[in-house]
Amino acid sequence: MGVLTAVPVQSDDIRFYAGSLAPMIQLEPDGKITGFSVDLLKEVLAEAGETFSEDIILKTNWGRAVHDVEVTPGTALLALTLLPDRQDRFKWVGPINEIQIGVFGRKADNLVIRHTDDLFKYRIAMVRNTAPMLMLVNSLPGIEEHIVKVSSIRTQLRILHAGRVDLIIQAVKASRHLMQEEGLETEEFSLLYLVEPTRLYYGFNKTTDDEYITRLQAALDRLKRKAVDGRSRYDRIRAKYFSDENATLGPVQSDGD
């Protein structure tokens, strides 16, 4: 693992860490890393005059990735939520997308979450160093006593399925995608509560060259410019992975988006 240095890291040295967060980041059975964040990165780099190759993206344990990028020059995250306490710890390009965070439980348990204070009644599995965990800890002092920290969404789902915890809090689409990959019946789980959506960015180690960050941000901004048909190049890439249905925040009665 690297250490912080005052020497700016140039664009050719950047390696992007990827953890499973479908459809933003998808780890395919053959080892290939795909998803919206990857496709958008290709276009952003091309627009900025940079080259893309698959070997700049590295699969990693997401529970460790945020810390590793913070302390390792020449690294970045393919998707990172910009939270107030992270603002000065990374350099940012985005936003690249918005994702919905939800509270899941086992349908057979018939749990009801009407307000976040209800979470104090249960044991909750959360992936360490992720936005959902930081948001929960910051908004609900004392909730850490109810949290079981794990390293991945897969582990969250497995221990929820096994009844070792009562709830998980995680990205809705990524959780449902991994339920299917894990061979779990999606009908076994209920989406009990929707949390405020979060915005995702490409997050870079602080030593990354400012000029490189500026060029990538300008490239992304150009991709988002609307054409005469009202759609941008960004919109066309995003449409391959996301629909535009709007979820209602707060308690929900069904398991649908």
UniProtKB/TrEMBL annotation:
Pfam families assigned to the protein according to its UniProt record, in alphabetical order: SBP_bac_3
Superkingdom of the source species: Bacteria
Domain Solute-binding protein family 3/N-terminal: 19-243
SUPFAM superfamilies named among the record's database cross-references: Periplasmic binding protein-like II (SSF53850)
Protein's name according to its UniProt entry: Amino acid ABC transporter substrate-binding protein
Species for this entry: Pseudodesulfovibrio sediminis
